[in-house]
Design a protein that fits this description.
- The chain is mainly alpha-helical and about 110 residues long.
- It has one domain.
- It contains four helices and no strands.
Length: about 110
């Protein structure tokens, strides 16, 4: 049996790591937790968080490029993307605290890991 409080905290840290920064540094926390933890739910949450980081970078690059080439006419698209990124992360943290025995799955993302 795994400790539910430890599972909640580690899973929330995996998903919340993206709040630390959107750079490559923030993905280090879920990667570390993936290798350190022996809890299968925490490992699944870490993998999902790593995949979400990759998606945020991919979509952020695409949106940033589109905003730049349209001379900032698509700037509202960047704001929507940013709000979606934060909203999904907050949703993930709430879900891992409310249901710690089930890993959270982000909708509509590419899963590499």
């Amino acid at each position: 049996m795994y400790d539910a409080d430890k599972r909640k905290i580690l899973s929330a840290l995996c998903h919340g790591a993206i709040f630390f920064s959107t750079t490559f540094v923030s993905v280090g926390l879920p990667i570390a937790i993936l290798f350190i933890s022996d809890d299968p739910v925490v490992k699944d949450n870490a993998k999902e968080s790593i995949n979400f980081h990759f998606n945020v970078w991919l979509y952020g690059g695409i949106i940033g490029f589109l905003v730049w080439i349209t001379l900032f006419l698509l700037f509202p698209l960047a704001i929507i993307g940013y709000l979606l990124h934060w909203g999904l992360t907050i949703w993930a943290i709430i879900r891992v605290f409310s249901n710690p025995d089930q890993p959270f799955r982000y909708p509509l993302i590419f899963r590499i890991i």
